[in-house]
Amino acid sequence: MPIAFKEWAVTVRALAEGEQLLTLRKGAVTEPDRHFTLEHDRFFLYPTFDHQRYDLVRESHQPELRRALEEGVWPDGEPPLHALVRDGGIGQPDRVRIRAWAEVAATWTVTDPRTVHELAPYYVWTTDYAEQRLAWRRHQPLHVILLRTYRIPRPVTVRAKDELGSCANWVEITRDLPFEGTPVLSDAEFERAYEEIAAICDARVPALA
User: Could you tell me the domains of the chain?
Assistant: First the structure.
C-alpha cells in the first residue's frame, strides 16, 4: 500500500501551493529510541488536525486554517473554528483528502536556533513554534527535510490505516495511488530555493577536525 507522511492539514495545503518547502522533524514517541528516521524518499502527504492551532501558525497564514478543514471529512460535519484555539480541539476525521505527494530533495540536521529562524520564509508556522520543535529533546538534532512537492490531478478521499495514532510520522493509505502530477514550483524556482536553504543550513555546520 502507498505510504503517506503525516503533517498538519494547513501545512499540507501550504506545501501543495508552494508556500512551504520544508518540514522539521524529531523522533515520534512511537519510533525506536524516539529518534526520527526518514524511512521513505517519496510519499503522499496526509493531513492531520488534532494538534494544529491558531497561535502556532503565523498571522498572515491563519485564514488558511479555515480552508484547511476542507482536507477532512467528519461524520457529523465540519468542526467549529473555535476548536482551533487548543491542542486536540479537533479530532481526526474518518476520511481525509490527499491532494499532493512529495519527494525528498535534501536533508540536514541542525542544532542552532538561528538556523531555524532564518528558514522562516520556507514554512508557515510561527518561528516560536519552529524553535519549540528544535528545543524538544534538546540532545537530538532537528531534521530539516526539503521537499519537492507535486499536486495530483484530482484530490482523492481516502480512509487511512492509522494503527499508531496521531504521534506516528508515517501511515499506510488503503488504496492504490499513482505518483503523478505537476510540481508546485518550476525547476528554476525550486533550484533557487534549494540553494538558499542549503546556504542557511550549511552555514553553521561544525567544521570537521
Answer: 3-202 (2.30.130.30)
